[in-house]
Design goal:
Residues 82-112 are annotated as: Disordered. Residues 93-103 have a biased composition (Basic residues). Strands 1-2-3 form a three-stranded mixed beta sheet, with no helix packed on it. The chain is 20% helix and 6% strand. It has one domain (18-104). The chain has one helix and three strands; from the N terminus they run βββα. One zinc ion is lined by residues 17, 21, 26, 28, 48-49, 51-52.
Amino acid sequence: MHSHWLPCLHRTGLLPEHLPHQRALCPLHPFHAAERPVAAPADGNEAACPNCYCFACDAPVSECRHWRGGEPKAPAHCNAHAGSAEWRTQRSNAKRQRTRAARAARDPLGLG
Ligand SMILES: [Zn+2]
Ligand SMILES: [Zn+2]
Protein backbone atom coordinates (compact mmCIF):
# COMPACT_ATOMS: atom_id res chain seq x y z
CA MET A 1 0.00 0.00 0.00
CA HIS A 2 1.40 3.30 -0.98
CA SER A 3 0.03 6.29 0.79
CA HIS A 4 0.43 9.86 -0.24
CA TRP A 5 1.00 11.17 3.23
CA LEU A 6 3.32 14.16 3.09
CA PRO A 7 5.00 15.83 6.02
CA CYS A 8 3.49 19.21 6.73
CA LEU A 9 6.42 21.27 5.53
CA HIS A 10 4.25 24.24 4.73
CA ARG A 11 2.17 24.10 7.86
CA THR A 12 2.45 27.78 8.69
CA GLY A 13 3.18 29.08 5.21
CA LEU A 14 5.55 31.50 6.87
CA LEU A 15 8.22 32.89 4.56
CA PRO A 16 10.93 35.40 5.49
CA GLU A 17 8.96 38.21 3.89
CA HIS A 18 6.03 37.43 6.22
CA LEU A 19 8.07 38.25 9.30
CA PRO A 20 9.04 41.75 10.36
CA HIS A 21 12.58 42.59 9.30
CA GLN A 22 14.84 45.57 8.95
CA ARG A 23 14.67 47.17 5.53
CA ALA A 24 18.33 46.34 5.00
CA LEU A 25 17.48 42.65 5.41
CA CYS A 26 14.37 42.63 3.23
CA PRO A 27 14.14 39.41 1.19
CA LEU A 28 12.06 41.16 -1.47
CA HIS A 29 13.89 44.42 -2.15
CA PRO A 30 17.66 44.68 -2.61
CA PHE A 31 19.32 47.15 -0.26
CA HIS A 32 22.21 49.46 -1.04
CA ALA A 33 24.19 50.15 2.09
CA ALA A 34 25.92 53.50 2.29
CA GLU A 35 28.26 54.21 5.18
CA ARG A 36 26.87 57.66 5.90
CA PRO A 37 23.27 58.87 6.23
CA VAL A 38 22.22 60.85 3.16
CA ALA A 39 19.24 63.11 2.54
CA ALA A 40 17.62 61.15 -0.30
CA PRO A 41 16.82 57.47 -0.83
CA ALA A 42 19.79 55.63 -2.36
CA ASP A 43 19.26 53.31 -5.33
CA GLY A 44 15.74 52.06 -4.65
CA ASN A 45 16.12 51.84 -0.87
CA GLU A 46 12.74 53.56 -0.52
CA ALA A 47 11.04 50.40 -1.83
CA ALA A 48 9.64 48.45 1.11
CA CYS A 49 7.38 45.47 1.66
CA PRO A 50 4.58 45.52 4.28
CA ASN A 51 6.87 43.88 6.86
CA CYS A 52 9.86 46.16 6.43
CA TYR A 53 10.92 48.01 9.57
CA CYS A 54 12.71 51.32 9.75
CA PHE A 55 16.07 50.66 11.43
CA ALA A 56 16.31 54.23 12.73
CA CYS A 57 12.77 54.39 14.18
CA ASP A 58 12.53 50.72 15.13
CA ALA A 59 8.99 50.90 13.72
CA PRO A 60 7.12 49.71 10.63
CA VAL A 61 7.92 51.75 7.53
CA SER A 62 4.31 52.97 7.47
CA GLU A 63 4.98 54.73 10.82
CA CYS A 64 8.29 56.26 9.81
CA ARG A 65 7.98 59.96 9.09
CA HIS A 66 11.40 60.31 7.48
CA TRP A 67 11.45 57.29 5.20
CA ARG A 68 12.24 59.28 2.07
CA GLY A 69 13.90 62.18 3.86
CA GLY A 70 12.74 65.54 2.55
CA GLU A 71 13.46 67.51 5.72
CA PRO A 72 16.66 69.54 5.90
CA LYS A 73 18.03 67.88 9.02
CA ALA A 74 16.51 64.43 8.71
CA PRO A 75 18.33 61.95 6.48
CA ALA A 76 16.19 59.46 4.56
CA HIS A 77 15.56 56.59 6.97
CA CYS A 78 15.18 54.06 4.18
CA ASN A 79 18.98 54.06 3.90
CA ALA A 80 19.43 53.13 7.56
CA HIS A 81 21.23 49.89 8.42
CA ALA A 82 23.05 48.34 11.34
CA GLY A 83 26.41 48.35 9.56
CA SER A 84 26.83 52.11 9.90
CA ALA A 85 27.96 53.69 13.16
CA GLU A 86 26.18 56.94 12.28
CA TRP A 87 22.90 55.16 11.76
CA ARG A 88 23.31 53.29 15.02
CA THR A 89 23.73 56.68 16.70
CA GLN A 90 20.58 57.97 14.98
CA ARG A 91 18.74 54.90 16.20
CA SER A 92 19.75 55.32 19.84
CA ASN A 93 18.92 59.04 19.72
CA ALA A 94 15.47 58.24 18.37
CA LYS A 95 15.01 55.63 21.09
CA ARG A 96 15.91 58.13 23.80
CA GLN A 97 13.42 60.63 22.34
CA ARG A 98 10.68 58.00 22.31
CA THR A 99 11.38 57.09 25.93
CA ARG A 100 11.20 60.75 26.91
CA ALA A 101 7.96 61.24 24.96
CA ALA A 102 6.40 58.14 26.55
CA ARG A 103 7.35 59.35 30.01
CA ALA A 104 5.90 62.80 29.29
CA ALA A 105 2.66 61.20 28.12
CA ARG A 106 2.34 59.14 31.30
CA ASP A 107 3.39 61.94 33.60
CA PRO A 108 2.68 65.29 31.93
CA LEU A 109 3.50 67.39 35.00
CA GLY A 110 6.78 65.68 35.66
CA LEU A 111 5.67 64.62 39.15
CA GLY A 112 6.65 61.02 38.92
ZN1 LIG B 1 10.69 43.91 3.50
ZN1 LIG C 1 12.36 55.98 10.39
